[in-house]
Amino acid sequence: MPSDIKRVQYAQLARSLRGRPLAELISRATTEPDLATFGDLLHLTAVQELSNTEDAAALSLLNLFSYGQASGLRLTAAQERKLRALTVLSLAASRRRLAYAELLPALGLQDVRDLEDILVTNCIGAGLVRGRLDQAEQCLLVEESVARDASPAQLSAIAASLGAWLDSARGVAAAVEAALQSAVEGAAAEAAQQAQLAADIQAKREGAAAVHEADAEGPANNGLSGLFADESEMFSLESMGEGSTPGNAARLPKRRR
């Protein structure tokens, strides 16, 4: 049965229990091999009310399995193995290579065989860790691990980290918006400049066309003026010739030799 279904079922059962039956349910939950989170149980009102009863130890036990690591508390053999597996999860949350030299004291063990038994049976076998043992290098190589419950102190750190990330994201968003606005304004200015350039080019084309048209009309006007000039000269010659005959025409004196 998947661990998330078990977690929900334990929480549903706990809502209807009080006192000793509730304490026994908590004890049973802490020995479930593939159950790594207990927040659904821990935050129930009925469970928190155990703090003022003779079953307050059950609440302390649940806190230990939610946030704690292997310690010298009195536990059953099954609970000890489970808490050691949870301790491995805590260490695997920040590192992917866990040396035996680090795991042995953290789990309160001295024998490598006992350590490897916990790693193989209670971690990898229970589905809490995906990875392999490197016996030559004396370490556990973690590929993936189940996350444990976050303690109040961890939640504060997470909230601070998320707040810093949010501030950074807002800064990036503001920078992107400013860059976008600048790009829009630049594009508008470029479009206006291109429009002005096009207008200038069009004006020059129209001016050139007008000059060309005027030049094309010029020769015809010049021809008429020439015609009028010829007629004027003709009239002058006729005036000069009035009252004279070819024989009376003025002659230039001959140059003497």
TrEMBL record:
Question: What are the protein's UniProt keywords?
Answer: Signalosome
Q: Does the keyword Flavoprotein apply?
A: no
Q: Which domain of life is it from?
A: Eukaryota
- Keyword Cytoplasm assigned to the entry: answer is no
Q: Where is this region: Disordered?
A: 235-257
GO cellular component annotations of the record: COP9 signalosome
* InterPro entries registered for this protein in UniProt: COPS7/eIF3m, PCI_dom
* SMART domains noted in UniProt: PINT
Where does the PCI domain lie? Answer: 74-165
Q: Which family does the record claim for this protein? A: Belongs to the CSN7/EIF3M family. CSN7 subfamily.
Q: What is this protein's name? A: PCI domain-containing protein
Q: Which organism is it from?
A: Auxenochlorella protothecoides (Green microalga)
- High-level lineage: Eukaryota, Viridiplantae, Chlorophyta, core chlorophytes, Trebouxiophyceae
